[in-house]
């Protein structure tokens, strides 16, 4: 019988008569039965969050920083156990799970530093005759309780990107963890409590869509922070009312490789960016635009590099490509590949499936109407395209309803700056894949890819409000 996993409201771990099995996506075995919060549990969590805010908003920055450093230290201490939990419940290869844990340590440490750097400003106001002898002081104040939704593919670090800046600024949070991988977030909740955060500062509740509706519509929340699919994210924004909204959504990232690039390096990075973790990364490489002069050479090297990837058990240190998160995800990706081939596209690599593992797949001769090109595939599938000049390549990258990140491999600075100016995305990565991210950078997209920016300092700005005080020296 699987172990029962409770959820956190305030400082109370609660059970529920309603449970959902949490399955290992590789073995199919049930890891735990996850207690599902009910409507009253959510109401209690919101009330706890409101009450805790009365403490956190008055807490001095050194205390908030100390708690955040305590969280980072505990994650570091439990690094192996947390990485194993990530690999087991999300199917992420263990080597990549360790990277995620290390990133979460960095995220909480950075948030501790930024908690001490929430600055204001002074401003002279005697710019007109009616305003003589006046000046002002502006400070940033926490906005209050924040609701959060996190996805399965980064089950600790994307929660860290919500809670760490929220708490650094003096806010509280109620979070719905991903239904496919909730255990890591629930483990983090205990770590936050143990580090000395006030009860109610961080509440983590797995729950149904109906119960989660309270996180979106309840007016006691002053912000909604959502990471997930565009379809869900934009729907939630429409329901959120007057509260602030931060959306980090999907993409089908394009990368350009021009004839001046370091081809060996470009191939190595792009192969990893396209297929690591089965492509279940919102900034994974999905569409490759290769200059016609190097296309054949690039394709040959790409195929050879893909042969070096190991598929299989996420707990194997050598594995790069593990299972998709569940059978429906694998079914969807498999159907999109079949749809492309039926429409005249060519599978140059892969396309085969074993249970929930799909081979790294490379497709050419795609049309914009094919979903492997136009939608977010969120699987180990990439498309490849020739181009003649930089404008054609940029037009190809921009031919998307998404705009999260893009990459360009080039040593021609005219092409680099032209791409930076012309590609309509939230970030252009030069001489690396669009999958690159460091947790301090402003991260987010345009078009259907989102609204606002994450990254600790940038999230803190969104999670605070400036307030001015005007002095009149009479």
Describe this structure in words.
With 474 residues, the protein is α/β, with parallel strands linked by helices. It has two domains: 3-249 and 449-470, Aldehyde Dehydrogenase, Chain A, domain 1, CATH 3.40.605.10; 254-440, Aldehyde Dehydrogenase, Chain A, domain 2 (3-Layer(aba) Sandwich), CATH 3.40.309.10. It contains 15 helices and 25 strands. The relative contact order is 0.14. The mean pLDDT is 97.
Layout of helices and strands, plus pairs?
Layout lengths: L2 E3 L1 E3 L2 E3 L4 E5 L6 E6 L3 H18 L4 H17 L1 H12 L3 H22 L5 E4 L9 E9 L3 E4 L7 H12 L4 E4 L6 H12 L7 E3 L4 H9 L5 E5 L2 H10 L4 E5 L5 E4 L5 H13 L11 E5 L3 H13 L19 H16 L3 E4 L3 E2 L2 E2 L2 E4 L6 H4 L6 E7 L2 H9 L3 E2 L1 E5 L3 H10 L4 E4 L15 E2 L2 E2 L4 H7 L1 E9 L2
Parallel strand pairs: 1-5, 8-9, 8-11, 9-10, 11-12, 13-14, 13-21, 14-19, 18-19, 21-22
Antiparallel strand pairs: 2-3, 4-5, 6-7, 7-25, 12-24, 15-18, 16-17, 20-23
For the record, the CATH architecture of the largest domain stands as 3-Layer(aba) Sandwich
State the helix count. Answer: 15
Rg from alpha-carbon coordinates: 23 Å
Count of spatially separate domains:
2
* Fraction of residues in H or I helices: 25-40%
Poorly predicted spans:
none
Distance N to C terminus: 76 Å
Q: What is the arithmetic mean of pLDDT?
A: 97
Spatial shape: globular
What is the CATH class name of the largest domain? Answer: Alpha Beta
CATH superfamily of the largest domain: Aldehyde Dehydrogenase, Chain A, domain 1
**Major beta-sheet overview:** 7 strands, mixed
Largest sheet strand order: 15-18-19-14-13-21-22
Strand share of the residues? 15-25%
